[in-house]
Structure formats: structure tokens, C-alpha cells
Design goal:
- The chain is built from 16 helices and nine strands.
- It is an alpha/beta fold.
- The protein has a domain of 66 residues.
- A nine-stranded parallel sheet has the order 1-2-3-4-5-6-7-8-9.
- Helix 11 runs parallel beside helix 12 and helix 12 packs parallel to helix 13.
- It starts with 18 loop residues before the first helix and ends with a helix.
Length: 428
């Protein structure tokens, strides 16, 4: 027998590619100029989406491609950590929310063209439900002038107050995001290094006014968090004026700011004219007058479920006012009063609350000076309670016996809740 040995030992007969595969490869190569997806058969569509580059221009892919696999590749191309549980388990939502967040966080007033934001709106408006803005850049600081230049400038335009908007103007964006439900803001600059200045970490009055107007126009907003931004009484009152009667806002977080009694009075007014379910005013400057204003509304409120006034200056007058309100309120579930300079007098009022109120589920009185007698009063009140499943009285100078008794009642209530849930599940 005769054999023919090929010159190339690795040579083998090449199968000629199918015409359909050649066409699909051509579609992938020319997708940016002529995007074709929906017209393809299901199998061909999957092939094209798998081969497409994750860095194609968004004006081509945003409203054309809905395949989650493609947007997963886009996310992993840009970010090392991708937790879609924070984004409704949607890769596309995650991509556009993080992309828009980055545009806003890098926006420099007076330098960045607002068109960079406005051009993105039609591409992402259907997919952005939550924005978490972790920094907002101020305008670039102009070089300091000499004394002669300052004199001549003051003589020529004596009332100039600087730029019209000190940070990014949310008025150009929020009313266009028709599906936005959550907005988290911090007016600060990350990684400022040696360029640190205190005014990099605060919201200005002009910022506050433009933001307040934008919030009023965002009718779908449910959650607003504005913290660590030096919001004082005046700015708080300005925000509240625009949030009154908001149709969808249910959670407001103004923690870690500078809000005092006047701002707290405005918050009390907001509770009376809103559907708020969660209010967080932790770490502000609220004293007893502010607490009394909030408690006055709380006694009549029927929507609020959680109130956080930790790390303020309520004192006994403020604490007692909140307690008296809870003798009339039957809807609040969670109350946090940690670190408010409260003593035995407040504990006595809350003893009555624990005895009478059957709706409260958790209460935090830690880091107050309740004392031994205050602990005994709380022990007596909670002994008749069947609803409290969390009670924090750490660092309150309560005796161990009272603390143990309170803890035992809480455990019994927790067991009762677990048994009820098990019975309900068995019934279903």
C-alpha cells in the first residue's frame, strides 16, 4: 500500500465555515455602525450578544440590549467588586446607576460641561432607581489676588458672591430620572490629601436651595439620605419647606449634621405633613425644645415606624416628652435614644411606656445615666410588656439584677414571636 505523508504533520482538512456564521461575525464586527439584534433568530441573537465587546458606546447599546449576560460582562470589565443584590439583582441597573454616580462625583462646576450629564439621561433614565453619591466636587479655586487687584475688583463689582451653584446642580437631573426611588448624598471630597479645607465638607445655601427644588420635582423619590454635610437649622428648614406634602417620601436620613432645635421644629412640621415611616436624626444638636416639637407631632402621628434621635442633647425634658408622646402613639415600632444625657426621671416615664404601649418592638436607651433606680423602674414596666423584642440598656449604670430581669423578659417575648411565626407558617 502507498501512503502520502503531508509536509506539515499538523495539517488537517479544514471544515468550511457556515455562511450563517460568517454573516453573524460580520454583524459583530460592524455592530457600532449598524446594530442588529432583535431581527435575529434566538440562537443567532445569543451568538452575537456573547461576542459583542463590553466597551461599545452606550448610545448604541443602552436602549437596544436588555440581555443580562451582556451587562454582566460590562460590569465586570469596569469594576472588580460587583454585588448585584444592592441593585435589584439586575446587572443593567447596576451598570447605569454606578456609571451615572461616577459622572456626578467627577463633575466640576464651571469646568465640566453639563451636557455630559444631560446626554446620559435618555440612555439611563429607565434603569436608574437608586443613586449613592459619595462625593461632590466644588469649583476650582481661583488663584489668590494681590491686594491691589482685590481693591480694584471690590471697587468695580462690589457685591459678587462667587459662582451661582457651588456644587453639582441636581436641578438639571432629578426631574428627568422618572424611576428614581433612593438618593444618598454626602457633600464632601474623597482623597483630598494636602488640599484639605473645611469648606470641602459642607452643603452651601445655594446647593441647598437647588437641591430642595430638585427634590420637590422628583415625585417618585421614596428615600432621601443627606448626612455628614453640615446641614444646620436654616438649611434644614429650607429642605423641609420643599418636602412638605411630598407624595412618595417615606424615609428621611439627616444624621451626622448640625441640626438644632429650630431645625427639629421644622422636622416636626414635616412629620405632620408627610407619609414618613423612618426618620433618622442621629448625631445632631437637638435639645429639649426640639424634642418637644417632634414629640408633639409624634403623639398624633400614625405613619412613623422608626425614630432615631441618638447622640443629641435631649436631656430629661426631651426624653420625657418623647415618652409622653408614646403613651398616645400606637404605630411607632423602633425608638433609638442612645447617648442623650437622660437620667432616672426619663426612665420613670419609659417605665409607663413599657407598661402601657403594646406596639413598640425595640428601644435603645444605652449610654445614658439611668442609674439603679431608673433600672428598677424599667424592670417594673417591662415585666408587663409582651411586645418588646429588643431593649438596649448598656452603659446606663443599671444594676445587674435589673439588667438580667429585663433581658429575660425580652427573651420570652422573642420566643413568643418565633412560636407565633412557626404556627402561622404551619397554618399556611
Amino acid at each position: 500500500m502507498r501512503r502520502i505523508i503531508a509536509e506539515d504533520p499538523q495539517w488537517s482538512l479544514v471544515v468550511v465555515p457556515l455562511l450563517s456564521n460568517l454573516c453573524l461575525q460580520q454583524i459583530v464586527r460592524n455592530f457600532e455602525e449598524k446594530p442588529i439584534v432583535e431581527e435575529l433568530l434566538p440562537g443567532h441573537k445569543d451568538y452575537v450578544l456573547e461576542k459583542l465587546s463590553p466597551v461599545l458606546p452606550l448610545n448604541v447599546t443602552a436602549n437596544l440590549i436588555s440581555d443580562e449576560g451582556y451587562w454582566q460582562r460590562c460590569c465586570k470589565e469596569r469594576w472588580d467588586v460587583c454585588d448585584i443584590s444592592r441593585y435589584g439583582h439586575s446587572w443593567k441597573q447596576m451598570f447605569f446607576e454606578r456609571h451615572l454616580e461616577k459622572i456626578v462625583e467627577l463633575f466640576i462646576p464651571g469646568v465640566t460641561d453639563p451636557k455630559t450629564v444631560l446626554d446620559m439621561v435618555p440612555l439611563c433614565m429607565n434603569y436608574v432607581k437608586r443613586l449613592d453619591i459619595s462625593q461632590l466636587l466644588p469649583p476650582i479655586k481661583e488663584p489668590q489676588k494681590t491686594e491691589e487687584e482685590e481693591v480694584s475688583d471690590s471697587a468695580s463689582d462690589g457685591g459678587s458672591d462667587g459662582p451661582s451653584v457651588d456644587h453639582f446642580d441636581f436641578g438639571i437631573l432629578l426631574d428627568k430620572l422618572t424611576n428614581l426611588e433612593e438618593l444618598h448624598l454626602v457633600y464632601k471630597v474623597k482623597n483630598c490629601g494636602m488640599n484639605f479645607e473645611w469648606n470641602m465638607f459642607e452643603i452651601t445655601m445655594q446647593d441647598c436651595e437647588s437641591l430642595a427644588k430638585a427634590l420637590k420635582s422628583c415625585k417618585t423619590l421614596k428615600v432621601l439620605r443627606l448626612h455628614q454635610s453640615k446641614v444646620g437649622d436654616t438649611k434644614c428648614r429650607l429642605l423641609v419647606n420643599y418636602l412638605l406634602d411630598h407624595p412618595s417620601l417615606i424615609e428621611l436620613d439627616l444624621s451626622h449634621n448640625l441640626i438644632g432645635d429650630k431645625g427639629a421644629r421644622a422636622i416636626g412640621k414635616l412629620l405632620n405633613r408627610s407619609q414618613l415611616e423612618t426618620l433618622n436624626m442621629c448625631n445632631n444638636n437637638i435639645g429639649s425644645p426640639g424634642a418637644q416639637a417632634i414629640s408633639y407631632t409624634l403623639s398624633k402621628n400614625c405613619t412613623l415606624h422608626s425614630l432615631n434621635l441618638c447622640l443629641n442633647r435631649l436631656g430629661d425634658e426631651g426624653g420625657q416628652a418623647i415618652g409622653q408622646a408614646l403613651l398616645k402613639n400606637s404605630t411607632l415600632l423602633h425608638l433609638h435614644l442612645r447617648g442623650n444625657e437622660m437620667t432616672e426621671a426619663t426612665a420613670s416615664v419609659f417605665s409607663q411606656v413599657l407598661f402601657q404601649n403594646n406596639s413598640l418592638k425595640s428601644i435603645d436607651l444605652s449610654c445614658n445615666r439611668l442609674g439603679i433606680d431608673g433600672g428598677k423602674a424599667l424592670e417594673e414596666g417591662i415585666s408587663h410588656n409582651t411586645s418588646i423584642i429588643e431593649c438596649d440598656i448598656r452603659l446606663t449604670e443599671v444594676c445587674q439584677k435589673s439588667e438580667h430581669s429585663i433581658r429575660q423578659v425580652v427573651r420570652n417575648n422573642q420566643d413568643r414571636v418565633r412560636m407565633r411565626r412557626a404556627q402561622d407558617g404551619h397554618t399556611k
